[in-house]
Design goal:
By secondary structure, the chain is α+β, with helices and mostly antiparallel strands. The protein has one domain. It is about 20% helix and about 35% strand. The protein contains one helix and five strands; from the N terminus they run ββββαβ. Strands 1-2-3-4-5 form a five-stranded antiparallel beta sheet, with helices on one face. A hairpin with a 6-residue loop joins strand 1 and strand 2.
Length: about 90
């Protein structure tokens, strides 16, 4: 279990991972922020992905949530021509 503080989003990240039979890693994360509800989520990371890349994926997804009034998991809904599949799932407590 590791802790990281992201100065861009203001979140404190708690990260844990486990290796799957496929060789990929399931990364579970939790956020803490004084201003907002805590969040948790999962990232499916490729075998060669670095910790820095995984944290960047999480950070980008959290920034998307902060920016917009309406956030949805794009892989679940077909709301546009552009398909941007993300392997990051984020939920609020």
């Amino acid at each position: 279990m590791s802790y990281y503080i992201d100065n861009t989003t203001g979140y404190k990240l708690k990260i844990d991972s486990k290796k799957l039979c496929s060789g990929k890693h399931q990364v579970r994360f939790q956020t803490q922020n004084d201003d907002e509800k805590s969040k948790y989520g999962y990232v499916l990371a490729d075998e060669g992905s670095s910790l820095k890349e995984v944290i960047e994926q999480i950070r980008m997804e959290l920034l998307k949530m902060k920016k917009g009034d309406f956030y949805f998991h794009s892989h679940l809904y077909s709301l546009g021509k552009e398909k941007q599949h993300s392997n990051v799932f984020v939920f609020e407590y």
